[in-house]
């Protein structure tokens, strides 16, 4: 196959907000216990934070981490997780039907984010709780001192206010599975009043209001419109969530699902702008894609789990090469919408539908999806460019005109670097891409990284942790001011130029 593209440094979409490379740690399965936190593990420091896991998170350079849920937050009393550990209660955790001992809570999380050099994105419980607990938590975290909740933080041993900037107003409140699910009017009213009170405590914070849990929710779009009618003036971002999978083992159709994600983002922008028009508002609502990933491998097996265990393995999807390609196309889709998507969280970070896996008491390793996520975060900072792309296309069960070549380019002006991310979705053919680089005179290829494997279902496991890992033997090169490169069949590519 052959494809061509044109890039020009003046054709800008937007500056990438680094928070687009965020992730998520929920109190779920072994994300916290046995994941990031495991006192007594040989790699744990004096706080119990696993340093082998920290090192992998630092390789990615995760800029922001959402916490503590997810569905978990809708039944969480944050007060259970602060103060002396010996006094913390063990509770039934209803979202995931496990035991929560509260050994790790807000202060431990914030100490951990400092260690991994990430910002915190904190969610408040709008399922079983509301305005009061949310404003108290902002006071506990962000107020310097001299008030009841800020003094309590100081008494707990944390004299400095955390200054957490980004907060989520609940989680997936439209979902019948959610503890304390609400109608759009109920949620919109509550979210708006909670937003006001949280901002009364700290006017510098930014708030994310819940959109639909999935694009296929029955109340989709109407939910967003109603919620924004209530909250538009007091919130800063609307959330989107999506998970894709290949349950029917149809790879071309699976990899085409980035078109669904594209439509999802475009529709949500339309709804936001409709409310903006209705309100004659000067403010443009930005998007927080705060849960996105592949999730399907464990959906059935997890249903058989015995309830009320402590940190059982849950949602431990083992990712294949094709899942990594799917994650690559999702990253490309997010980048193409960098003008409106300002925050995105790969859900999640460790053990639970995650790029990093651990064995409790044992080693940590990188799943296949680690690589596109790491490459995008490391090399994808700068300005996203409009790429004019001419690619062959294919049709599938659910989609028509699916481009074989999915690609986006990011220009880092200060470093004089250009990075092209590209996925070849073809099962049987490589794509020879030629790229007209116009304004990038003198640029040369520094590296052409490729993630590929003969077996599209190849995975990394504890004892075979490098089966799917990238190499730098791609052939992209400059020939007469044209970039020419071969993208092997079913591959993720990072072409770095300087
Ligand atoms: O990320 C796993 C779960 O998926 C989250 O708890 C929930 O918000 C979503 O449905």
From TrEMBL:
Residue intervals of the Alpha-L-arabinofuranosidase C-terminal domain: 290-491
A Pfam short name: ASD1_dom
Cited InterPro entries: Alpha-L-AF_C, ASD1_cat, GH, Glyco_hydro_b
Catalytic activity: Hydrolysis of terminal non-reducing alpha-L-arabinofuranoside residues in alpha-L-arabinosides
GO molecular function, one term: alpha-L-arabinofuranosidase activity
UniProt-listed Gene3D superfamilies: Glycosidases, Golgi alpha-mannosidase II
EC code: 3.2.1.55
Highest rank taxon of the organism: Bacteria
Pathway membership: Glycan metabolism
Keywords: Carbohydrate metabolism, Glycosidase, Hydrolase
Subunit and interaction comment: Homohexamer; trimer of dimers.
Family affiliation: Belongs to the glycosyl hydrolase 51 family.
The protein's name: non-reducing end alpha-L-arabinofuranosidase
Gene coding for it: abfA_2
